[in-house]
């Protein structure tokens, strides 16, 4: 079966067993927790504090927000919810790249003002920065990292950037994966390796399945359901899901970049419940529940839980683009589930 691996973007969730360092320099072992991306581009969404309570009531223990929304950060104080904190859009990334003093002020206002009451885990410097602007990512990451180091927080909070899956090319078979723009992304991978930060990737089997129109990629393979096995003759591994194959192609690219120890965190993944080819409540439930249940096992190439963030908490009816973009939510704005999902304790 020939598979085509494409990428696009949206928002997804999850968190794994790891060591975190608190402000009192005490390391605590955190049990595997699960996260969901909290997008806010919608009508009549609940208050930030109600959203935090919904996360807690549903055993969702990690969140990603796409800018340092002060109300959301205040609502997260003392919640015990881990956080990926995005810096905001491209303009903000460019400012952080140009001015180390601006980065220091950003860290003071949005990190030091809240941490450790808010369990900020990673700072994402850019989300799917367009190909022509990727040159600003590394200097912005370096400035934010240096600001964290000056505040004695760089061992606790790691700096990365969230990328579209299509920064990887030759992704089938997974062992052939390589960075499309090595001059841009190999230095980023080396920065992550040096600082102990993960590679944040938005991984969407849905868009590969949609573009293929079911010609080569079977629905069960795309939605983490049993029934299809694909062998990678390059590494001798067998794949039963497109998600695993996509993640392992990223690991292959990191190995070729000389950074095999950099961990992949899936910063977005999900499946829409309406609005396009293959988008249905049944398929969305199959994929997202399958993902929640699956990621604790790792991939054929990398054992151990995969830290993964599901996109998204709510249907966001103000999002631009195709109709599917507005139907990735696990919940309606009234906090009722679009379909049942169960997050483990």
Automatic annotation (TrEMBL):
<dbReference type="GO" id="GO:0005975">
    <property type="term" value="P:carbohydrate metabolic process"/>
</dbReference>
<dbReference type="InterPro" id="IPR017853">
    <property type="entry name" value="GH"/>
</dbReference>
<comment type="similarity">
    <text>Belongs to the glycosyl hydrolase 17 family.</text>
</comment>
<keyword id="KW-0326">Glycosidase</keyword>
<protein>
    <recommendedName>
        <fullName>Glucan endo-1,3-beta-D-glucosidase</fullName>
    </recommendedName>
</protein>
<dbReference type="InterPro" id="IPR044965">
    <property type="entry name" value="Glyco_hydro_17_plant"/>
</dbReference>
<keyword id="KW-0378">Hydrolase</keyword>
<dbReference type="InterPro" id="IPR000490">
    <property type="entry name" value="Glyco_hydro_17"/>
</dbReference>
<dbReference type="Pfam" id="PF00332">
    <property type="entry name" value="Glyco_hydro_17"/>
</dbReference>
<dbReference type="GO" id="GO:0042973">
    <property type="term" value="F:glucan endo-1,3-beta-D-glucosidase activity"/>
</dbReference>
């Amino acid at each position: 079966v020939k598979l085509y691996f494409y990428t696009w973007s949206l928002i997804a969730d999850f968190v794994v067993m790891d060591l975190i360092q608190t402000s009192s320099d005490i390391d605590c072992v955190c049990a595997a927790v699960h996260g969901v991306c909290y997008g806010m581009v919608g009508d009549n969404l609940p208050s930030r504090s109600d959203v935090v309570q919904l996360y807690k009531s549903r055993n969702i223990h990690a969140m990603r927000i796409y800018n340092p929304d002060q109300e959301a950060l205040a609502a997260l104080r003392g919640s015990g919810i881990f956080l990926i904190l995005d810096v905001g859009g491209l303009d903000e990334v460019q400012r952080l790249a140009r001015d180390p003093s601006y980065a220091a002020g950003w860290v003071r206002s949005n990190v030091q003002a809240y941490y450790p009451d808010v369990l900020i885990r990673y700072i994402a410097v850019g989300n799917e920065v367009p190909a022509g602007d990727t040159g600003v990512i590394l200097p912005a990451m370096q400035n934010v990292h240096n600001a964290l180091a000056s505040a004695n927080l760089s061992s606790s909070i790691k700096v990365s950037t969230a990328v579209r899956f299509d920064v990887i090319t030759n992704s089938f078979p997974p062992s052939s994966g390589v960075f499309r723009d090595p001059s841009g992304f190999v230095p980023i991978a080396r920065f992550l390796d040096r600082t102990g930060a993960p590679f944040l990737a938005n991984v969407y089997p849905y868009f590969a399945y949609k573009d293929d129109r079911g010609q080569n990629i079977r629905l069960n393979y795309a939605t983490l359901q049993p029934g299809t096995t694909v062998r990678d003759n390059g590494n001798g591994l067998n794949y039963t899901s497109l998600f695993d194959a996509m993640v392992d192609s990223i690991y292959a690219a990191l190995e070729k970049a000389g950074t095999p120890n950099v961990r992949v965190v899936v910063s977005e993944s999900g499946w829409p419940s309406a609005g396009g080819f293959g988008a249905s409540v049944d398929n969305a439930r199959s994929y997202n529940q399958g993902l929640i249940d699956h990621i604790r096992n790792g991939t054929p190439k990398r054992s151990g839980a995969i830290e993964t963030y599901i996109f998204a908490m709510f249907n966001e009816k103000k999002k631009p683009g195709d109709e599917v973009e507005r139907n990735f939510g696990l919940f309606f704005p009234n906090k009722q589930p679009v379909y049942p999902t169960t997050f483990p304790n």
